[in-house]
């Protein structure tokens, strides 16, 4: 038991080092620091993160199980690449779930609940205006996280959480964040005015843009 100001407080929950290492490697895959096909070398990553090779090895195996990396046996572990079919499937799964979630949000969200969504839109707009593409892409991706949080407690939110990290990668594949931000603004306005049909249609249209950008980033666009 830990005491603070004479009062007992619960100790921080234990978190294995491999989990922290896994999260840091995954973040680099999602933001493109480790591009698709890049070999993930234990020794190099361990030195970069300032840890031993054991948690890195465990983290890489976890990322293989999560689908972010592939074990090429004699050639080692590498960042996973996605073909056109897989990208379309991932986007389609996310869209179907988000369409249901958006319907729930339109029916239940309050003005107070919309505030964080508005804030992340403003953050993306500011990043675009100062030509900070990386910050704008990150803010655009976070828009979906905030939107999902507004549907917390629904089955759609629960299932979206399972695929959230892969969706983060998919949503980060936009080299030009301005059109994506414009679509997010449209979606926000539809939600704010209670237009369920319009909000769900925008969600579906948004998927096509996401797929096209991801295919272009992977070099598999037709």
Q: What value does the average pLDDT take?
A: 84
Query: How far is the N terminus from the C terminus?
Result: 60 Å
Written as H for each helix and E for each strand, in order along the chain, the element string is EEHHHEEHHHHHHH
Assembly type: single chain
- Give start-end ranges of low-pLDDT stretches: none
In the CATH hierarchy, the architecture of the largest domain is: Up-down Bundle
β-strand number: 4
- Class per helix and strand makeup: mainly alpha
Q: What would you report as the Rg, rounded to the nearest angstrom?
A: 20 Å
Strand content: 5-15%
Number of helices: 10
Number of domains: 2
The CATH top-level class label of the largest domain: Mainly Alpha
Q: Major sheet, described briefly?
A: 2 strands, antiparallel
Output the CATH homologous superfamily of the largest domain: GntR ligand-binding domain-like
Explain briefly what this protein structure is:
The chain has 222 residues and is mostly helical.
């Amino acid at each position: 038991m830990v005491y603070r100001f004479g009062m007992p407080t619960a100790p921080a929950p234990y978190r294995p080092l491999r989990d922290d290492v896994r999260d840091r490697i995954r973040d680099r895959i999602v933001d493109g620091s480790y591009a698709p096909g890049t070999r993930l070398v234990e020794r190099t990553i361990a030195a970069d993160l300032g840890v031993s090779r054991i948690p890195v090895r465990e983290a890489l195996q976890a990322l293989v199980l999560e689908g972010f990396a592939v074990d090429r046996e004699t050639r080692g572990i590498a960042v996973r690449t996605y073909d056109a079919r897989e990208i379309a499937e991932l986007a389609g799964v996310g869209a179907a779930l988000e369409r249901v979630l958006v319907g729930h949000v339109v029916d239940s969200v309050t003005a107070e609940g919309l505030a964080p969504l508005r804030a992340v839109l403003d953050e993306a707009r500011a990043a675009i205006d100062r030509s900070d593409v990386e910050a704008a892409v990150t803010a655009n991706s976070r828009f979906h996280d905030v939107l999902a949080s507004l549907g917390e407690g629904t089955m759609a939110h629960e299932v979206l959480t399972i695929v959230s990290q892969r969706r983060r990668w998919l949503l980060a594949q936009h080299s030009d964040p301005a059109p994506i931000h414009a679509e997010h603004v449209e979606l926000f306005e539809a939600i704010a005015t209670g237009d369920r049909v319009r909000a769900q249609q925008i969600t579906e249209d948004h998927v096509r843009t996401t797929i096209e950008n991801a295919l272009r980033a992977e070099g598999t666009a037709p």
